[in-house]
Each structure stands twice: as structure tokens, then as C-alpha cells.
Amino acid sequence: MTLPDRPPAPPTRPVLRALVAITALALAGGAGYLLRGPAPATETPAADAASAASATPAVTRVNGVTTVTLDAATQAGNGIRAEPLEAAQYRDEAVASAVVVDLQPLIDLRTRYAAAATERATAAALQEAARQEYERNRALYAQDQNVSLKALQAAQAGERAARARAEAASRALVDVRGALRTQYGQTLAQWAADPQSAPFQRLLDHREVLVQVTAPLGTAGADAPRIEVAGTDNRRQVASFVARAQQVDAALAGTGAIYRTAASPATANGARLQAFVPRGNAGAAAGVVVPANALVWFAGQPWAFVQATPERFARTPVPTTAPMGDGYFVSQGIAPGARVVVSGAQLLLSEELKPRTAGSACKDPECD
Length: 368
Known about the structure:
Blueprint: H1 13-36, H2 45-55, E1 58-62, E2 65-69, H3 72-77, E3 81-84, E4 87-90, E5 93-100, H4 104-142, H5 149-193, H6 198-204, E6 208-215, E7 226-230, E8 236-244, E9 255-262, E10 272-278, E11 285-291, E12 296-298, E13 301-309, E14 312-317, E15 323-324, E16 327-330, E17 339-343, H7 345-353
Antiparallel strand pairs: 1-2, 2-14, 3-17, 4-11, 5-6, 5-10, 6-9, 7-8, 7-10, 8-9, 11-16, 12-13, 13-14, 15-16
Helix pairs in contact: 4-5
């Protein structure tokens, strides 16, 4: 006899508890998904590369010039600073030998001249007194011999001696003045002879010094009203023409001139200087002076970064054939008013030379 099918046994209590727990976990997970939403997708390597490329300075060639593009925030953070250049003029120059003149011989001659002038003035006064004495005695002798012949003869001898002394004093003064002119020229002789000379007083106070320049043949150094001189520190300072030099160095072929310039640590007595004198009579060229601290060296020559736009810096060649002041004169390629990087130029060059990714390519129509 076949037994009827028995209904399945109800689940036991442990099984029921397990089912309830599984269901609760499933519901909790779903609820959590609904609260948080889907997890954000992680950035892909391609996105990382694009982001890095956007932060990397673009290096391009605009109109044939290598240009580095850097945003303002990056410039400020790296201390990149540009300054405008003022217009300047430059004359073709030759370098001449110069030496600071020892003033002691000139001062000695000035002292001799003052002594001779004093002696001449004294002798002239004595001569006049002796002449008046002789004239008085002669008049008295002529009036019935109111003075003795001996007194008249003594007065006459005194007048002659005084006249001889005055003549000797005059000759001595002329000799000293001639020595001044022979050794130092008319202008310096006048300065030394005048006790109230303001230019000579500046020399005595060591506010100024004299510099003898031997300019190469074919230059205008002996006639130029103003030149520049520099010592071992290479700092130039203006020197003004005083006179043609009366004595020149036989070992140097050229023309000599005396200039005066401000006293400085580089202008001690006998110091050797460089003088920069005009070459010929050519007119001055117009341009700018690029400061030395703006230069960077690349491929064997110096360059400067010129700020073409607020974020673009063009690397521009700078010739160093015309030093001027604390920099170099440039007549082409950089115009007056152009802003040149004076701080951070080396950083711009380093950024230019870094390897670039495809994402950093220039999108500007001006790019080559």
C-alpha cells in the first residue's frame, strides 16, 4: 500500500535565523547603495598624463623664436621677474691704457710757485721802499747837500740790491710757472697757480683724481670731452677732459690726455685702469643695455628671455661685443621698453630643456 506524500517539514529554528540574517544583509547593502550612489571611477593613466601636461609649461616656436609659456601663478611662485629696458646710446669704443696720476709732484710745484710768488711780492715791496728812500736822499743831497754823499750812496746801493732781488724773484716765479706748464699743461698750471682754484681743491680733498690716458692711434681719445674708465672691479665711471698730456709713456704708441674723475677705491695713486675712448668720429648707435644678471648661456652663446606677453617669454640672443655699464649694449632684436627677465631666467631655460609630452604641444595658430 502506497503511503500518501508527506508535506515537507518546517524549517528548524536555526535555519530560520540564518535566512533572516541573509535577507537583512541584502536589504542593508541595497539601502547603502541607494544612499551613497555609485563609487567614483578612479582616474585612468591617460587622464593623469593629460593633467600633468596641462600643468607643464608649453615650449613652442613662435615666428621662429623659441618661447616658454608660463602662467602668472607659476611665475610668482618661482620668483620670475621682468623689468623694462630704457633707451641707451653707444659709441664704438677702443680700450686704452690709463693710470692714476700721483699728485705729489704737482703739489710740490704748486708749493714752490706759492713761495716764489710770495718772494716776488716781498721783493717788489722792498724795491719800492728802497727806490723811495733813494729818491728822497737824492733830492735832499741836491738841496745844498742836506744829506751826506755817503747816505746818498748807501740809499742808491740799497735800491739797486732791492731791484736785483725783485728781478730774481720774478725769474724764479716764471721758472716755476714754466715747469708747471711743461709737465702738466696750461690748464693744470692755472689750477695750481690759483690759490682759490675750486678744481684743484677737489683734487687736494681727494674728491677727484687725475687720470692719464694713452689712447690708441686713430681714436678720438685725446680730444673726447668725456670718456669712461674702469678699475679691477670693472665698474665704469665718467671722466672729463682736462688737457693734453705733456708726457707720454714711450712704450705705448698713441696720444695722451689728462682726465679727471671721481675718487673711488679703484683710483689709488698709480693704479692701472682701463679707459674706453671713442673710435673715430662715428655717431652713437641707439639701443638698450641688457643687464648681465639677465643672461643665460645656451649652445655656447648668451641669451635673454624677453616677455612677449604676460605669459610668454621669448629666448633672444644677446651679443657681448659691446659691454656698457653693468651689462651689454644691444641695437637689434630688443627694443627700448621691452621687458627682460632679470630674475629666474635660468629657471625658464631649465623648463625649456625638459622633455615634453604630446599633450603639451602648442595649439595657438601663431606656433610654427
